[in-house]
Amino acid sequence: MLARLRSYLPTAALALLIVYFAANAFTGEQGLLSSNQRDATLMEKTQELAALQAQREDLEKRAHLLRDTSLSADLLEERARSLLGFADPRDYVIRTKP
Q1: 26-63: per-residue pLDDT in tens?
Q2: What whole-number distance in Å separates Cα of residue 28 and Cα of residue 1?
């Protein structure tokens, strides 16, 4: 009987390997069943990228206005006041809690 089972051992081992790889193909980290999670993560990261690109464009426009060749007096005054904490005597200052 042992000799009879020994002939099926390679087939059984191969079948177990096939089952193992098939289970990983469906339920593994990059398996077919986790595609919804990957799609959700992709959408989230795409929205985050769009927000960061818009923020970068805004900062590039502001930096361009602060260069010597195209200096905006209003933007320069706004930045100086916010960084130094000064206000014009004619300004109304409304304090809010941070």
Answers
A1: 887 777 777 788 888 899 999 999 999 999 999 998 88
A2: 38
Rounded to 5 degrees, φ, ψ at 10 are -60, -35
Secondary structure percentages of the chain, helix, strand, coil, to 5 = 75, 0, 25
The residue that leads in pLDDT, 91 or 20, is 20
Residue 74 to residue 65: CA distance in whole angstroms: 10
Cβ contact 6:12 at 8 Å: no
CB within 8 Å of 64: residues ≥ 6 apart: 70
Element (H, E) at 23: helix 2-27
Phi-psi sector, 46: left (phi>0), alpha (psi -120 to 50), beta = alpha
CB 78 within 8 A of CB 86: no
Kindly report whether the global pTM for this prediction surpasses the value 0.90. no
The first and second tokens of residue 54, run together, are: 């818009």
